[in-house]
Amino acid sequence: MNNGRICISVCAETADALVEQIKRAENLADLIEIRFDCLKDDSQIKELFLSIENLRSEIKKPLLFTFRSKEQGGNKNLSLDKRKNFWSWRDDNKITFGSPFDNKTFLVADLIDLETDLIEDKNWILRNSNIFKNSKFYDYVDKYFDPRDFKEKFTNKIIGSYHDFFAIPKDINSIFTKLNLETIDIIKIAAQADDITDTIPIWKLLEKAKSENKEIIPIAMGESGKWTRILGLAHGAFLTYAALDSGKETAPGQVSARDLIEVYRAKELDENTDVYGIIAGNTSYTLSPYIHNAAFKFHQLNSVFIPLQVQNLDEFMRRMVLEKSREVELNFKGFAVTNPHKQAIIKYLDEIDETAEKIGAVNTVKIENGKLYGYNTDATGFIEPLKNVYGDLSGTKVAVFGAGGAARACIYALKKENAEVTIFARNPEKARNLAKEFDVNFEPIATRHSPLANQDIVINTTPLGTKGELENEIPVAIEQIKNIHLAYDLVYNPFETRFLRAAKSADIPTIGGLAMLIAQGAEQQKIWTNLDAPVKEMSRAALQKLR
Fold first, then answer.
1. Is 342 an active-site residue?
2. Identified catalytic residue from 342, 371, 416, 436
3. Which of the four, 182, 230, 419, 495, has the lowest number of CB atoms within 10 Å?
4. At residue 239, what are phi and psi to the nearest 5 degrees?
5. Pairwise CA distance, residues 508 & 452, whole Å
């Protein structure tokens, strides 16, 4: 367990919609960030403000108010003066506050988030922050509130925030110093990470803040920085932001609150948690965290599986993994490895098993006593579902589309079953070398026969069809597969790809990539934990996410 908090950020164009989100967030959040800058009409600000004030008896969780300009990641153009007026807002039709208590915004909020340009106006920030530091404030509290309830509910914290949506700033330590003022209770620095090693300076702020006895919220934004949101609480971050629902994120790389709580168990993690993750060029579509965290939860292990979006594998291994050169300590215990790193990672491993050596690709790494061991569970994960559906593969003619690491594992497994394999690939040189290495046939996609002549099974090992930019792509034309007996797509997200839908429309039996994902994942769990994988729980977690 840790002492961190999950803050759900709510955003809507109307006051009524925001109020509904606040009520829903109450059940999941430790505190709730209300994004006033999301309101489409400025006249809704006062309506929302008064609604929140009236709801104070119902809402038990602390409220964080944010009114952010577009330059700082907000939803509309807001001048400095307009934001100052917001923070100094008062309702003259209600209680008239005497100086210095005419600042209603500060009074109703439990925490407020102020950007650097506001903080740089030292007179303004001092004047307003002194509301909570003035002893007369509590005389006012005694008059209008139940003081016991007030002091339990209100934290009276000011967050000083800095955002960079383009890159990690080189002068990040000087930004920390700039925000490290007596009037600022919590420092928040959020910056965009394009590769995983970009996140290192952000992560190191945790140590800096601890040494200076300052609360901090360090966030590396984007998919490459998602891991900082998941592990931050375990390493001392004041809070981590979460979305109320998937698809309702208010910042790049934000995770849903339910996933943080139920999948990653972010509040249960600590500095001793064993960390596993998937190393991939794109982790936005992966289901691996859902299946592996379900297994860790089933076995009640202090372990977590996180997305690790890696562009530059060499830098990642050198700066974050290898014992002699790493710059951060994350207690890595193992990795799943996928496109495009399955072959490139081999040079960093101390040993690889026989299957991985023959395939020439690694999809599983175990770290034990400072050494890195490589395995390949793709071959087993691929062939088991195929044999269960198709039966004996000896003499079966199989068309494999693709020539990457996944294709290597498939070809290896098919050869062991005495199938006749033909590689179809867009990269003739790569495919020709692969065909020669495994002694199979090769045919360039550009010159393939139409329809696919004499093929029994077609297997897609390429990313075509994967959720996102490639979702509407298909490895082979629909009219070319009418005579085959089985279509097998290694893509698992979405659950049913365009390729599989095309096959079904032609009454061709299909196998989706989820079957292989679960099978190879179960083998990975055995390697990492020496425990039998809870296959039912892993499958249920994947299906629940896909649906």
1. yes
2. 342
3. 182
4. -155, 170
5. 14
